[in-house]
Design brief:
The chain is an alpha/beta fold. The chain has two domains: 158 residues, 2-Layer Sandwich (Beta Polymerase, domain 2), CATH 3.30.460; 137 residues, Rossmann fold. The chain is built from 16 helices and ten strands.
């Protein structure tokens, strides 16, 4: 069986297609259950963010597992399997481990070193745990991935400066309106992206931060955290006429602002410019709104281009993080390999002890005249001989575990001792 990582991200897939394939939180239990019931998959974690949709699984057969994942993603997106396959990448075993560790460390993000992805990896694991689709294999893998992500951020400067999509969104809006000072900003949504956005807005000096969300209590909690103000979604039309910047971060599967809505809004603003930053995937705002006078609409593609220009200083840390990832991949494989050979070593020692005990029993009559001290000496002598004979093979098997030589040694032991 193999660990596999199959998915697509902002590099492999156009935004329009990626937003079709993302999985909303409400749909995640169904997706996990469906994948976990597939013929070739036994453990499953699904990571769905604004930049990626990835399935990590423990697969009986790689090609069968790939087919199961491809068809599930296609059904969810309402696409033909071949249309999905054009954008999928697939990794297995060590490369799957390396990919997940790189994702957790922020190396595979639109913003290199971003903070948010580490929490998203943790949440994906927790959701799978709650839904009962993760076991000891993927549980250990994701625990190690989170440790790797933490090391990358504490031991390097990869996360300094702009380190999240939300920070980049605020910085991009700030550049377009020549500073946040004195500006009123509305954030729609109250998830992790919205939390990061309001924190960045506070740091950028926005005069007033408004928060709207479908769940009123969450809007109030987020607004209170940034000394802002919650506004009801029912008042959205009125609020939009007086703000300078709108940031949308919802997980809605349909547009929340059609082009016609934005046109009507623009007419009521009497020529005042409105900057809209749509960081949602799927998008919250109709892309046709770009053509409306007085409205600047920015989405993940614009944020990605902005980020590329902003990361030159951080790129020097990438090699340091890659080194951390490589070391953690080796450490993870060593841990797994040691765990895999432990039962074989236990069987070898058990078989040896059975032979030793059987031989002592066979000579019981000849040893009948021995006293307690002599019997104890014979017992210690025979155990010592067995332990010394097994010591070197055991050490060599543990040292070679996880490599081709270790596989050969393990197979030889099984053959030689009928284990």
């Amino acid at each position: 069986m193999s660990i596999v990582a199959i998915g697509c991200n902002h590099r492999s897939t156009p935004l329009a297609k990626l937003e079709q394939m993302t999985v909303a939180p409400a749909d995640m239990p169904k997706m996990l259950w469906e994948l976990n019931q597939a013929d070739n998959l036994s453990e499953v974690v699904v990571l769905s963010t604004c930049n990626r949709i990835e399935v990590y699984a423990f697969a009986e057969r790689f090609h069968g597992g790939y087919r199961d994942v491809r068809e599930s993603l296609a059904r969810h997106a309402g696409l033909a399997p071949e249309d999905v396959a054009d954008h999928l990448y697939a990794h297995h075993d060590a490369e799957a481990v390396r990919h997940l560790f790189s994702v957790a460390a922020g190396l595979d993000s639109a913003v290199v070193g971003e903070h948010e992805i580490l929490g998203q990896v943790r949440d994906a694991w927790e959701t799978a745990r709650v839904e009962g689709t993760v076991g000891s294999v993927l549980g250990g893998l994701f625990r190690h991935a989170i440790e790797t992500g933490k090391r990358a951020r504490t031991e390097t400067s990869i996360a300094r400066g702009i380190a999240s999509v939300s920070q980049a969104a605020v910085a991009l809006a700030d550049a377009r309106i020549h500073g946040m000072s004195g500006r009123t900003v509305l954030v729609i949504g109250a998830g992790q992206m919205a939390e990061g956005t309001v924190k960045s807005l506070a740091g950028a000096g926005a005069a007033e931060v408004l928060v709207a969300n479908r769940t009123w209590s969450r809007a109030v909690a987020l607004a209170d955290a940034c000394a802002g103000r919650a506004v009801p979604l029912d008042d959205l039309a009125a609020v939009l006429t007086r703000i300078d910047v709108l940031v949308t971060t919802t997980g809605a599967q349909e547009l929340i602002l059609e082009a016609g809505d934005v046109t009507a809004l623009s007419a009521r603003r009497e020529g005042r410019e409105l900057v809209i930053v749509d960081v949602a995937v799927p998008r919250d705002v109709d892309p046709a709104a770009r053509r409306i006078a007085g409205v600047t609409l920015l989405d993940m593609d614009d944020i990605g281009a902005f980020i590329d220009k902003s990361l030159e200083g951080r790129n020097g840390e990438v090699e340091s993080v890659r080194s951390i990832v490589a070391g953690e991949v080796d450490r993870y494989q060593a841990i797994v390999s040691a765990r895999e050979v432990a039962p074989l070593i236990s069987q070898l020692r058990s078989r040896s002890e059975s032979i030793r005990s059987a031989e002592l029993a066979r000579f019981a009559a000849k040893l009948a005249d021995l006293g307690p001290a002599e019997r104890e000496a014979v017992e210690a002598l025979t155990k010592g001989i067995v332990n010394k004979l097994l010591h070197e093979p055991t050490v060599r098997l543990k040292d070679a575990a996880g490599r081709a030589r270790g596989d050969r040694l393990a197979e030889s032991l099984r053959d030689l001792f009928d284990l």
